[in-house]
Amino acid sequence: MAAPGPTPFISVPSFWSDLHGAKIRSVGLPSASDEARIVEYDLTGRRLEVSHHRTGRLAGALTVGRTGRLASYRRALQERLAPVVGAGAPATA
């Protein structure tokens, strides 16, 4: 009997880091983008929100001091992965 193949990657990648009191969070693949859009930039408040797009579609997001704002980006990116699950790839919990 053949061994099962690898499970397709169907989750949204993310990372976080705390550096000098700043909470840095990212979802998706910002490095794969061809455009970065600054949504919020507040140097005094130490806040930053940048959405990353590839050919006009959301590819990822990065925030500094705006942790709560990533939930909507994660949902949008996860919805783009949903058709992959429906196309026969096994869903993971």
Write the layout of secondary structure elements.
Elements: E1 14-19, E2 22-28, E3 35-42, E4 47-54, E5 57-64, H1 70-86
Antiparallel strand pairs: 1-2, 2-5, 3-4, 4-5
Would you give an account of this structure?
InterPro entries: FAD/NAD-linked_Rdtase_dimer_sf, Reductase_C. Residues 15-82 form the Reductase C-terminal domain. This is Oxidoreductase C-terminal domain-containing protein. The protein is an alpha+beta fold. It has a single domain (14-83), classed as 2-Layer Sandwich (Enolase-like, domain 1), CATH 3.30.390.30. Helix content is 18%, strand content 40%. It contains one helix and five strands, in the order βββββα. Strands 1-2-5-4-3 form a five-stranded antiparallel beta sheet, with helices on one face. The longest helix is centred in the C-terminal third of the chain and has 17 residues, at 70-86. The radius of gyration is 16 Å and the shape is elongated. Mean pLDDT is 85; it is low at 84-93.
Number of domains: 1
Largest sheet: 5 strands, antiparallel
- Architecture (CATH level 2) name: 2-Layer Sandwich
Low-pLDDT stretches: 84-93
CATH superfamily: FAD/NAD-linked reductase, C-terminal dimerisation domain
How is the largest sheet built, in terms of strand order? 1-2-5-4-3
Structural class call reads alpha+beta
Write down the secondary-structure element order.
EEEEEH
- Overall form: elongated
Strand content: 35-45%
Strand runs, count: 5
Q: Helix fraction?
A: 10-25%
Span of the ends, CA to CA: 26 Å
CATH class: Alpha Beta
Q: What is the CATH fold-level name?
A: Enolase-like, domain 1
Average of the residue pLDDT scores: 85
